[in-house]
Design goal:
five-stranded antiparallel beta sheet; four-stranded antiparallel beta sheet; 6 helices; 34% helix; globular
């Protein structure tokens, strides 16, 4: 895909863009942080983190969108990721397009996840013309659920067990969803 067709999203305070090699070190720091990764099966080492960043960058290169690196405009610093991906085929909710985020903990509490996620939903419904978007997290991850609610996603009350998660505390997942009609009604 031509670099000109890769979508870059911008908000008042953030740029959602293609990954750069300069992102790998702070991304590894983010993925090694036990506080950030509390609701994931494990932290990632530097190699695993870089491989994930390369995979995310390739998906963006292949289709023009995906899970973007997020940069704070004020500091020009990489602060994490926000974006869309196709949910894994072995989940009960598949096929679906899922929105997700992961930010460095020093950037929590500033509304960045909400701001970026709203822009991603706008892209999902206006540019990709999706009919719905889901978001999934462990039932114990209340912070992510609050972001889902702030972006007007609705708890479907259809919790499920993630077959890829072996930690009993994290296995049960909550499923949120927003349809295009709900998004349009929210933005009117």
């Amino acid at each position: 895909m031509n670099i000109d067709t890769i979508k870059i999203l911008s908000t008042n305070r953030l740029i959602l863009r293609q990954w750069k090699s300069e992102d790998y070190a702070p991304f590894a720091e983010l993925n090694a942080c036990t506080k950030v990764m509390e609701h994931f099966p494990s932290t990632l080492n530097e190699v695993e983190s870089t491989n994930l960043a390369l995979k995310l960058a390739k998906l963006i290169s292949d289709r023009g969108w995906g899970i973007w690196a997020v940069e704070e405009k004020l500091s020009n610093k990489f602060i994490g990721f926000v974006g869309l991906h196709n949910s894994p085929p072995d989940l009960d909710v598949s096929p679906a397009t899922e929105i997700g985020w992961r930010l460095m903990n020093q950037f929590w509490g500033k509304g960045y996840a909400t701001e970026a996620a709203e822009k991603v939903l706008e892209f999902a419904f206006d540019d990709l013309n999706l009919t719905s978007v889901i978001s999934v997290t462990s039932v114990v991850n209340k912070a992510s659920q609050k972001v889902m609610e702030r972006i007007k996603m609705i708890n479907t009350e259809k919790n499920f067990n993630d077959p890829l998660v072996h930690n009993e505390q994290l296995k049960e997942q909550v499923l949120y969803q927003i349809t295009k009609e709900q998004w349009v009604a929210k933005t009117l």
